[in-house]
Amino acid sequence: MTTSEYDRYRPPEEPRRRRRRDHAAAADSPSEASAYAVGTAVAPSAGSAMGPDALATAPSGSAPAAGRRVGARRGGLAPAGGDGAREMAMVPEPQFAPADGYYGRPVVKAPPWDERVALYLVCGGIAGGSALLAFGGQLTGRDALRCNARLTALGAAGVGALALVADLGRPERFLNMLRTIKPTSPMSLGSWILAGFSTGAGVAAAADVDRLLGQALPLGPLRRVLYGLEAPSGALAALLGAPLAGYTAVLLSDTAMPTWNAAKDDLPFVFVSSASLASGGMAMITTPTAQAGPARALALAGVAGDLVATKAMERRMDPVAAEPLHQGRPGWLMRWSERLAIAGGIGTVVSGLTRNRWVAAASGAALVTASAFTRFGVFYAGKDSALDPRYTIEPQKRRLAARRRAGIMHDSITTAG
Amino acid sequence: MQRLTAPDSAAVGDNPTADAHYAHPRARKGFFTDTSICIGCKACEVACKEWNRNPVDSNYELSNSSFDNSEGLGADTWRHVAFIEQDRSRIEAARESGRALVSLGMPQIRNADVPTTAGEAITTAITGAAPGPLSAAAVPPASGLPPAPELGDLDVLSSLGGGPTRPEDARAVDTTPPDTPEFRWLMSSDVCKHCTNAGCLDVCPTGALFRTEHGTVVVQDDVCNGCGTCVAGCPFGVIERRKDGIAQPKTERSAAPVTPTRPGTPEPARNVGVAQKCTLCYDRLVDDQTPACAQACPTTSIKFGEREDLVDAARERVARLHAEGRTEARLYGANPQDGVGGTGSVFLLLDEPEVYGLPPDPRVPTADLPRMYARAGIAMASMAAASALAFMLGGRK
Predict the structure, then answer these.
(1) Which residues make Cβ contacts (< 8 Å) with residue B262, sequence separation at least 6?
(2) Can you state the percent helix, strand and coil of chain B, rounding each to 5?
(3) pTM to 2 decimals?
(4) What domains sit in chain A, N to C, each tagged with a CATH number?
(5) Around Cβ B127, how many Cβ atoms within 10 Å?
(6) Residues 253-312, chain B: which have Cβ within 8 Å of A?
(7) B241 and A112 in contact by Cβ < 8 A?
(8) So where are chain B's domains?
(9) Class in CATH terms, B16-363
(10) Residue A109: CA count within 13 A, CB half-sphere
(11) Which of A416, B154, B255, B279 registers the highest number of CB atoms within 10 A of its CB?
């Protein structure tokens, strides 16, 4: 395609390579010419040179064939003529269909949270449930359970808090979380819950650590204060235990991520169940079977709740918004979480009957892993649901249409005037 | 277009400044982006980046999908121009969906005076017009350019075709649409919506996001700790945490209060790790200046002003387009009863919102927060009860 008289001064060109053939179902021959015409329509002259046929065929011919996400994302320059020596088709084909939204690009943005936040979700559950077990042990005189559960609670809360801080864009400003108490922000309330919980769990655990070390901590007169605060601190941690385990469900649901938001009615139940079975499992690992009876009972309650709540959640969610929970990595995690929970539950019963420490530890490990899988699965599903505009657009269009059918017209963001 | 002095007592209607308890709230400011006269020049994108010194958001990569290479709003792109090419069937579908909106009885203005005046302006423009060819892409054939239109008020493209101008008349008399063109290009400059009920603002745990006295939503760079909750909370996918990035050197701007760098080295990006989005040029607003994008827009597609006035203008404009048979025109964000309580940035769209990458039925997540807390409360109580029960039934030690 000669565009100017200077063309003949160009250096000889290498033969065109067609590296990008894979994306371009588009470049299949019949529509190629028109695709090129559309792509180069930058110049007014090119626009006027295009026949109406070329313009009409390119989009309509390709729209059905081009599946979702066919379009190349950011991927550098087009291959041929990238040296600027010739006019290039920067736009192979307008791959676009209404269900795709805008070129298949996300409508909502996934939060910049990585695995560290998912780890925090797991740790928060384990910590919260462990504080409840520790408080029970404290009240019923199960010393080993109390001590182990307190240490677990503090350790999990500490790891979780560190993971959370490390995930901040400006970790050095983590204390800004405690600038305000803001009920509309689950993150704000959660920060206060975590801070209060950690304080309670920390003091209670410190007393147990001191006892374990034979009062070797250099506390001096403060030892009395510590032991005096031990019981109320354990109670504080237990009071905030369930909120710590469950608030993260609200944190996730109170977002525009389609899967998390659609799960808002049942996700708290999934999360507290998962926390119960994880903390029960953790105590079964750390504590002799003789004292781990309540842990086993809590774990079993958690398994039952987890299985029921997860099924209920998936059934009651918008079917499209629920899809990410069944696909890919989150799908795998959710499936294995269910299997491990069942296996761990059976193992828990067996260990309760046989009082075999190894069975108890193995089932405990299965339960902790099940809980981790649940939370990682939910976490990834929500992030995945933001990437495909379909999950945002389809449920919204459906609910809008349903409202219109029901005669509710006043609340649409799109108006005729 | 812009009133330089806002009345101090103007906390009216759906003005969210009232909730912020300002001693002297100002009228709510906003944008009206009329995509029917956007030419996709991206002057708004450039002006925004320059004024706010936002970093480049890629290594000059091409999206390979359209002339839109900035792809979407984000931490470094606060104005984004969307490009969409549509064929005849898509245009007809858009026209049909717009007509369906009208027949659904969506809220419309009943004030007949305003459209009439607009109609008269059109008539004078048409009678004074000399016939001649017109080469704009999305314009139906026939008629010509008016000689010297009053630019702020009159829109060249819409003055073609004439016809009834009141919406009522439009429905009653002749709704024959103008000849449908073979194709059209949709261009739309997207921006933060500055919602009445802003999801980002609600979920921000530090109070870094706040409601300004102009009713807009702004991040305080020095307070935000980059937790990212707002990113997930925005139903429009606007706000984002800034990663690293390099702002290109602007030697003319060396006087600006930024850490000085050696000449020739790129200026380091500011506010890395912090949530960033459109501020509606808060720094310019406090000085009674127009936001950079609106000032740079050559076609007045981006209009800035008091939101109430803008919504009135937007309704007039839709009525006029409808009267011409262009029923694909519709408003986005003008309804104070929608899922986000109306937006500060109102858009006139020529197709369904999702075509432009906008959510069709956004709902601020915090609207359901009381219910979520209630459900979570039940769940937490169940967990506490379950552990109490576990100790009762868990056997003797």
Answers:
(1) none
(2) 35, 15, 55
(3) 0.78
(4) 115-385 (1.20.1630.10)
(5) 9
(6) 272-275
(7) yes
(8) 16-363, 370-397
(9) alpha beta
(10) 27
(11) A416
